[in-house]
Write a structure and sequence with these properties.
Blueprint: E1 2-7, H1 19-31, E2 35-40, E3 52-53, H2 59-74, H3 86-112, E4 117-121, H4 131-139, E5 143-147, H5 155-161, E6 178-181, H6 187-192, E7 198-200, E8 219-226, H7 232-245, E9 251-256, E10 266-269, H8 273-281, E11 283-288, H9 292-296, H10 303-310, E12 315-317, E13 334-335, H11 339-350, H12 353-370, H13 373-388
Parallel strand pairs: 1-2, 1-4, 2-3, 4-5, 5-6, 6-7, 8-9, 8-11, 9-10, 11-12, 12-13
Amino acid sequence: MKILAVVSTIDLKNKLGCTPAWWQLLKALYEIGHEVIVVPYLGNSIDSLWWRTYANPCERESLMYNAYLEGRKKAGKSPGARTFLTPVANQLIQNYIKPKWERFLAGVLNKERDISLLLFMSIPINHFAGIPSKIKKRYAIPVVFYDGDMPTILPKYTVSRGFKFNYYEGADLSEYDAFLTNSRGCVADLEGLGAKNVHPLYYGIDPGLAAPVEIEQDIDVSFFGYGSDFREEWMEKLITIPSREMPGAKFAVAGGGFRIDLGNARLLGDLSYSQWRQFSCRSKINLNITRWSHTGVYASSTSRPFELASFGSCIVSQPYNGIEEWFRVGEEILIVNSAAEAVDTYKQLLADKPRRDSLGHQARERILKEHTFIQRASRLIEIVQRIKS
């Protein structure tokens, strides 16, 4: 099967959270025998050993608009708030950006001729309204949308979450032959917005990319993430309070955008994806602290627990609605319900290396058995084949 994938971005420098997962899923599609062609919505195209690309038809425009929205965000203004420029931007999108993308996609489909699937991955769905219907009518191929930002991309969360604009305003979800989501709990929401043939497709991991390495564990408790929004409560309970109550323990936090007091934890700054592995494997205990929108909506997957498990990490997490969809609590991941319970759990684990090793080993075994991107890619193809049949 030849797949044309329009992705949010393929350049890791653009710092969109889904990008590492897109690399792994697209690689997995290649590894199970499919030809993959990638075009980014934001930024430049990057070839790899697993796919080829076409240049982004609106590369310059996308980078300029993204820089403008990032500037508003850094200035403390809601990136999703309407301004006097909003109508101008909307007109440019409808009368220039969308027609340019429509012509571009038609050109690629005409040139390639044997494309079997058009897959959109977390792009602004309302910027493409009407295009899927035209493509299906003209080329008779399935068009599928995969949104990896659920539930926070939903209209009821998007402004408070700080997304740059509401992707779903003015969109027609019924245009797509199937709609894939990282959250089982959002299926009903998407159906309510008009989506049909909705399926959960959870995040996963390439276990070769996220393999454990032998390294001295000089960090006791660690966390890596971007931003404290929507997870302030559990960062305080799992990091701030315990780091003060355990002055002899080494707490470390990597990433950025934290607008809370981190107690006695050492802030290490940002990490590249390759540095993330070293950081995790240096840590005796790795924390999974997820935004409440994800932990509150049933089985809303994020990359972090799959990454940590693949590293063979000893994982301690806040309560997470639906975590049992992916891991056995108590055997592969530990859940704590308060700061006091976190302190007790850390002390027990730091004094019991065999227990930490067992948790990490069992978590990685679960990854290899059920949560690789090869399995996710196979599931995607299975859904598409049902559409085609």
